[in-house]
Fold each of these.
Amino acid sequence: MTISAHWQTQIEKWEKSGLTLVIFCQQNNLKYSTFCARLTEYRVIHRALPTQAEVKLIPIEVKHLMVDDYGGYKSLFFSEGEKPACIELACLAHARRKFFDLHQVSQSPMALEALTRIATLYEIEAQGREMSLEERKALRAKQSLPQLLALKAWLMEKQMTLTPSSGAAKAVQYMLKRWSAFERYAHTGHLPIDNNTCENTIRPIALGKKNWLFVGSERAGKRVAAIQSLLGSAKLNGINPTQWLNETLEKLPTWPYSRITPASFPRRSK
């Protein structure tokens, strides 16, 4: 349940230096994907690395993956005779969207009731946003789990009265068939209730995805991905991406790489 002394040292060094993840991994000869996988569960909630004390509370050896109901992910969670590669998490925002769309179309009282119950779960999350992992876990155990159990019982009751092919039935079934994945977050203090933080981060790329279809070649695609990662890292560090790019391009011909660091750029006020 604890992280190694090596990782504690690396994280503490990263926090003090204020470097981006990409540069930090490069300077410490770490595999970027491995480092991110070990810390993603915490960063999704806090948008920052944990303190050295809090990181000990995160079960680093367990990997969770939050996905929708796309069948291509299933092999990651179910493996005959072998330990699954990941533990499944379901995004409550995806489930909420189905009831929201249903209510928009038909003004369904059942959909409104579902939205109200889900809103209660988000209100609890708002209460625990600034809490420590242990405090949030206790809050969820006391308040979220009873609400989830009541929601499940209500969904099962409604399922018996709905036409199987109706939109309402499909929304209910979407939650019930993946119920363990939906409620898993409430048994912990570090897992997120939804994937909104990640989705909001990639939305600009998703909105412009038609532009990325014609990058010219696989090598060009990798270059685009690298540039997007750098711009994203600038945003995470509170640096204006346009200003950072302009100044970096001006400095590259004459400055040594060691002087071109995030610390040399002013942060945006929050």
Amino acid sequence: MNNNNSKDNFWKEFWDFLGSAKLAVFMVVILAIVSALGTLIPQGESHRFYIQKFGEALGHLILKIGFSDLYHQSWFLFLLFLLGINLIVSNIRRYKNLINQARFLKVNLGTLFFQKSKNIKIFKNSLNLEEAQKKLEEILKSLHYKIKKEKDQNGNIFYYAQKGVFKKWGSFYTHLGILIIFLGAIYGNLPGKGFSKYANISEGETFKVPEGNFSLKLKKFTLKFDQKGRPLDFASVVDLLDFNNKLVLSKTIRVNNPLEYQGIKFYQSNYGVDNIQMEITSPKKIKEKI
């Protein structure tokens, strides 16, 4: 008997822990910190890039714990999964409470409850009971309250008035929406369900797409500035080549105007200086490019 009670208590405490606000706050803080690091550390670069940028020790550490491809790591997906479980459990508990409040609403709380209540005001008027009821109901209905009333054996009448019932469900639907987003993120990062990678392509270079049987060639990159030197537009003219290097299509990729082929979308994420060429002229008018 004691063993059964201890097991029941354990699972109840474990269930309460999974749906607790403390676990939710802890998971949100951890995910915020990890995601911030994922924003600061470039994703999807080569091993050599991290060694050169962060040094040998820190670069190897970043690669070892998976911060070079953070959002596809199993431990990151586990953090999302655990937060999703927390949302599911807390939503189940909240749903039960809301349903119980709606189904088992007690209107007749007894006169003793009101006598002991601090938030009570007693007043008298010249209206009889029927007139007072009618007047009270008119006032509550004018304020858009829904009314329930009960009468006890002593003839006392109890009213329960409420409005904005759907507001109570606001947090439930908010959590449900967040949960759907998390499930979509987890599903999209499962093996074979989706991927996200970065690639640096210089003008004239061809990039073999690992997840497809085709290549992408950057023919030309253009960058426009306004009079104050601020970038107005940057565009990439690309050729999509099949496995025999035959042209499939050409397209100009701009911000929010990607190239899509075989279910894969190619966006411009950034641009930068690829190399610098200098021409030196000697006193003898000999030119040399470096």
Amino acid sequence: MNLAENLSLSAAKTPEAAAVRLDDEVRSYRALDDASARVAGLLASRGVGPGDRVGIMLPNVPLFPIIYYGILRLGATVVPMNVLLKGRETAHYLKDPGAKAVFAWQAFAEHAQTGAAEAGAECIEAEPEGFARLLQDAEPHTAVTPRDGSETAVILYTSGTTGVPKGAELSHDNLAHNCRAAAGLFGIGAATVTLGALPLFHSFGTAASLGFKPQWILQGPAFVEQLITKDGSLKATPTPVAAALKGALVTSFSAPWDDPDAPGMRQ
């Protein structure tokens, strides 16, 4: 069971349904699936294959799930990386798992390139327009590479507050179970719209967001402010990561989760 099957099955069932929204940009499940197939093809053309490790150093933008699912689709392993990492830290995150490549958002490319050079990995800059041209030229890898559910899908690194950051391996089954549990706990269904208020490179953002079928909204502070103004029970708490993402999102978002109809989780 490859977790990337979630996206392909959703694209087959509801191809035109909105999958990801950031401000005025909306991507359907078909578009997300097609783009992920091109990411998989791009990686394959650069020598990446099943079981290889690939880093993602991006904020919450539509390219994150596209690249995430493209890596999984190829049968490779995702290594999510904090966008605040510096060159030396980036090198550890790539060298330790033996990553072959890393996708880096344009604003953080300098540190990613420094770390990738030290780790012997390729750094692929994810600048929206240039990256779109790169994917357009890539041969799509349409098939989802079969993986055993016990095989590693994602390697999440600890913060390293008490020592060197260590990688925790999450299997395809681990992540699928997390998503099923969260969907049942919060009553999430096909019509649900979820707010991407946690960094997708963080453990909670990865484990509880990226496997869902519902639409993700990766919105800016103005959108969150509207929710807060509309319902005073919501509280948004910006953190240093929010500032680093240049207004892309608010990274901490609390709501009365004992209420199944709490705004922000259901619409």
